[in-house]
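Thread: Newbie trying to understand structure tokens

Hi all, I'm a second-year student working on a class project, and my supervisor (Dr. K.) asked me to get a predicted structure for one chain before our next meeting. I've only ever worked with sequences, so writing a 3D structure as a token string is new to me. If someone could post the tokens and maybe explain what I'm looking at, I'd be very grateful. Here's the chain:
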Amino acid sequence: MPDSIPQKPAPRKPALFLDRDGVLNEDRGYVHRWEDFRWVPGARETVAAFNRAGWLVIVVTNQSGVGRGYYTEADMHALHERMQADLADAGGRIDAFYHASQHPEAESPAYRHPDPPLRKPNPGMILQALADWPIDREASLLIGDKPSDLEAALRAGVRSALFEGGNLLAFLRKQDLLP
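---
Reply by user tm_fold:
Sure, no problem. This is what the structure looks like when written as tokens:
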């Protein structure tokens, strides 16, 4: 008799990959404090809608401000915790945050890299999430506001859409991308 019963792999789910600055919150340049944070209209409702539909919601965000010395990783994590608390009030949650703090021109050598594998347009953050979570890649979607976001999605084999501002929920509805 075997020592353990083989476990079934977790069923795969689609994931909504979201860039942070410019998609979830207004891009005001290196946002890292809650008092400077402003949700994009429809962003909290979008996250909650995908949660209700059974999708994973994962943020993939370049955070070169850490590497450039503008703020610390602790500052960034504190902001993400505040985002989670505010989302919970709206009935939503982000399942995971992935960030890329490295940059070719980072102040600190620890964050300096000529072509950081996690930093978009490289697909490293998305590929890491695909390895960490039971994600159905073919059913997943990335929403970004820059060509580098879409390039990362393409290189990771995930479909994508370019959000150019306005109300995120209305955009997804118009593009027929809501679950």
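A couple of things are worth pointing out once you decode it. The longest strand covers residues 56-62. The two ends are 44 Å apart (CA to CA). Feel free to ask follow-ups in this thread.
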